Amino acid sequence: MSVDPRLRTRATELFGVDYPIVQTGMGWVAGPSLVTGTAEAGGLGILASATMTIDEMDAAIGEVRSRTDQPFGVNLRPDAADLDDRADRLVEAGVRVASFAGPPPGPVVQRLRDGGVLVMPTVGARRHAEKMAELGADVILCQGGEGGGHTGSIPTSLLLPQVLDAVDVPVIAAGGFHDGRGLAAALAWGADGVAMGTRFLLTAESKVPDTVKAVYLGTPVTGTVVSSSIDGKPQRVIRTRLVESLESARLTRMVRAAANAWRFRGITGMSMAAMLREGLAMRRSQDLTWSQMAMAANAPMLTRATMVDGDIDAGVLPTGQCVGVVEDLPTCAELIDRIVAEAVEALDRLAP
Length: 352
Known about the structure:
Elements: H1 10-15, E1 21-23, H2 32-40, E2 44-48, H3 54-67, E3 73-76, H4 83-93, E4 97-100, H5 106-114, E5 118-123, H6 126-135, E6 140-143, E7 149-150, H7 156-166, E8 171-174, H8 180-189, E9 194-196, H9 198-201, H10 210-217, E10 224-227, E11 235-238, H11 241-248, H12 250-268, H13 272-286, H14 290-294, H15 298-307, H16 332-350
Parallel strand pairs: 1-2, 1-9, 2-3, 3-4, 4-5, 5-6, 6-8, 8-9
Antiparallel strand pairs: 7-11, 10-11
Helix pairs in contact: 2-3, 3-4, 6-7, 8-16, 12-15
């Protein structure tokens, strides 16, 4: 396959993929079907393991392996109680990339890198990028405030140049990207590629229920909100009646959080003691308040309600602001081919 050399970056060389396009590890969304579709189309698919038990993660990795011989990654929770074991499993399985939504512990970074696994944490501030580079991150995913799920407040257009100026490792831009013009813009800034979540959620290989996808497709650019009422940390979601009720009812959301913690325990098979240890570890590593720790199970369970069960009234819909400009449900191959063609066209306009 002939790839335009302008789309060859440090990231494509490190990842071993054709195009500088990353599909992010969205919980309950980025399963083997989506990861395989992305990998086969020339991008880097990231498997979401944070909502899986370690055995489920192994099975999902095996399923991806059975479907494609292309490189892919796995997203890990940096505060998971079994993080060391999960890191070892990634090394044993020959996974190419381990991504993290927050800062992973130094010993885990070293263990992964020694085992041939690239480490790619997500950052939302320049100082975080500097710390991750010092820690040994191979690639940094820089997400601006337009991104979906847990996100910061600095727009991509301001954050990305800061991070590029601060580190020498490859940087992947995220937050608001959805087409080839965005990829060309990121490359012009000096990034080594783009990462997209919402755009890949709205593809044929995504197993999100059709009724939920229809809500996403019907949401305008102004239809999202950044709320701290879901799990105590800022998270961009589609504005729904449930989100508005969580915003206005402090007591109700604490009761809901307790119920969700119990349900999360049942799904993951964790003991109460293990859940408490993990919660305390999250509180220390993420500097959470006691109330934020109590609400930490809210996000995965409220997201599961929509992404798995299709119950829009009982869950939340994490999304980037780009949701308002996404209008179709292509296959991963159709999407990536279109993005590549648009990017080449945009680069041709810049340098005819």
